[in-house]
Amino acid sequence: MVVPKKRTSISKKRIRKNIWKRKVYWAAVKVFSLAKSLSTGNSKSFFVRQINNQTLDLKPAPLNKI
C-alpha cells in the first residue's frame, strides 16, 4: 500500500488553500460582474428577450468566427 513518507507542512497546506481561494475569488468576481451587467441591461455577452417587461429567456451571444 502506498503511503506518503513525510507529512505535508502547514505552510504548504496554506499555500495550496490560498491558491484555491484565489481561484474561487476571481470566479465570484466574474459572476458578480456578469449579474450586475445583466441587471442593468449593459450586458454585451447575453441577449435578453423581453415582452411586457418580463424576461423570457437568456441566450449567450454568438461567437464571431475568425
From TrEMBL:
A molecular function GO annotation: structural constituent of ribosome
Keyword set includes Phosphoprotein: no
Keywords on record: Ribonucleoprotein, Ribosomal protein
Gene Ontology CC annotations of this record: chloroplast; large ribosomal subunit
Residue ranges the record marks as coiled coil: none
InterPro entries: Ribosomal_bL32, Ribosomal_bL32_plant/cyanobact
One of the protein's GO biological processes: translation
Compartments, as annotated in UniProt: Plastid, Chloroplast
One family name in Pfam for this protein: Ribosomal_L32p
The keyword Cell division is annotated on this UniProt entry: no
Similarity-based family: Belongs to the bacterial ribosomal protein bL32 family.
Name used for this protein in its record: Large ribosomal subunit protein bL32c
Biological source species: Nelumbo nucifera (Sacred lotus)
